[in-house]
Design brief:
Number of helices: 6
Shape: globular
Strand content: under 5%
CATH architecture: Up-down Bundle
Mean pLDDT: 90
Radius of gyration: 19 Å
Order of helices and strands: HHHHHH
CATH class: Mainly Alpha
Distance between the termini: 13 Å
Low-confidence stretches: none
Oligomer: single chain
Number of strands: 0
């Protein structure tokens, strides 16, 4: 095994360890939410989905933001490692988006009376999701590495410009979504016990993001090192 392949394997192992710890943490967070966090008076048990839905949504937006930022740096430095990281972050962002778009209707149906409505935030979020699905499809369709990285970087930067509109949509448009209870200029508008559980869940999802991205980045490095060895 080449030194590059050994380094990639080590990266994968670290990512798997982080991912395993984080997945256990997700289970523990939901136990905490169910049994040691007050039930919201109006929404009842359906509100417990909040502790998965919101961290997944924030994680997806952070992942897509990093794709755009790193893509911009890639176009400047042309470092292939930046492209590999952007690819890994995009895949994790899409995975988190699936969680967000699944738990959202499960929470919304008993509260809003509908699984889906084409309000501003939902529509922009779905558009952002499809944009990054297209990003991944583009990467699969372009075989030449430098060309693939360049085209993908442009799409990633376009996605970056859309992220703020997703967050600010509840201020800019009439929407069923409530205004933010955490990411806002004023103090969080929720009881301390609920805020504690939410912050713990966000920490766990941050660790999950780090684990997934590290694993995927290591796999990409391993694929590259194997290809280089075969070429030699």
């Amino acid at each position: 095994m080449t030194p590059q392949a050994q380094a990639a394997t080590t990266t994968i192992r670290r990512g798997l360890v982080l991912s395993g710890i984080a997945l256990v943490g997700v289970v523990l967070v939901y136990v905490l939410a169910l049994f040691n966090t007050p039930t919201e008076v109006r929404q009842g048990l359906a509100q417990k989905i909040f502790y998965i839905h919101v961290p997944a949504a924030i994680g997806a937006l952070v992942a897509f933001t990093l794709v755009g930022l790193v893509s911009g740096v890639y176009l400047w430095l042309r470092d292939p490692r930046l492209d590999l990281f952007a690819h890994a972050s995009a895949e994790v962002g899409v995975a988190f988006s699936v969680v967000m778009l699944t738990t959202g209707p499960l929470w919304g149906k008993p509260i809003w009376g509908t699984w889906w409505t084409w309000d501003a935030r939902l529509t922009l979020t779905l558009f952002l999701f499809f944009l990054f699905v297209g990003y991944l499809a583009l990467r699969s369709a372009v075989p030449e590495p430098a060309e693939r990285a360049r085209y993908s970087a442009v799409v990633g930067i376009l996605g970056l410009f859309l992220v703020p509109f997703v967050h600010l949509s509840v201020y800019l448009f009439r929407t069923l979504h409530p205004q933010p209870v955490l990411l806002k200029p004023s103090a969080p508008s929720m009881p301390p016990e609920m805020l504690r559980t939410l912050l713990i869940s966000m920490g766990v999802f941050t660790l999950l993001y780090a684990g997934f991205v590290t694993t995927r980045y290591g796999l990409a490095l391993l694929t590259e090192s194997t290809g280089d060895a075969d070429a030699d």
